[in-house]
Design goal:
4 helices, Substrate Binding Domain Of Dnak, Chain:A, Domain 2, about 150 residues, mainly alpha
Length: about 150
């Protein structure tokens, strides 16, 4: 497992931006529910939750030095952009403008991290060779026992 000395400054900044955005979205979620009206519309609340979740996931992928972090960063950038746009549409609400700025900043950072990876979706194995995604077999479900 890689230690923190293997992380680039760009990755460390992206991890921090994802963690900041995660926190900001969760705090804003609580704020929006208390405001009611347009702030508390289900689509808006869902987008804040989506953004918080993908930010936490992207940070976790980078923290554990997953070679697949470029994929989560790409998704994170897209969700953060959508969240920023939606929050910015909330009029003159300074709290919403602040979270929109945080989301934009995270999106920019994640876009930079995503662009560093492979566009084919293939990952490098421990031997350094490129391999494509594995085919998944049938999904087995567990039955409840009595």
């Amino acid at each position: 497992m890689a230690d923190t000395t293997d992380y680039s400054e760009q990755m460390l900044a992206c991890i921090q931006n994802c963690q900041d955005c995660h926190r900001a979205c969760l705090q804003t979620l609580t704020y929006c529910m208390s405001q009611g009206g347009h702030h508390a519309e289900p689509d808006h609340l869902r987008l804040l939750m989506d953004c918080a979740d993908i930010c936490a996931t992207s940070a976790a992928f980078m923290l554990r030095a997953s070679p697949l972090h470029t994929h989560t960063c790409g998704a994170c950038a897209a969700v953060c952009r959508a969240c920023a746009e939606h929050c910015a549409e909330m009029g003159d609400d300074l709290r919403m403008k602040a979270v929109a700025d945080t989301c934009r900043h995270c999106a920019e950072s994640c876009e930079a991290m995503a662009s560093r990876g492979h566009s084919s979706g293939a990952a490098k194995s421990d031997t350094g060779t490129t391999r494509g995604p594995r085919r998944a077999g049938a999904v087995l479900s567990r039955r409840k026992t009595r």
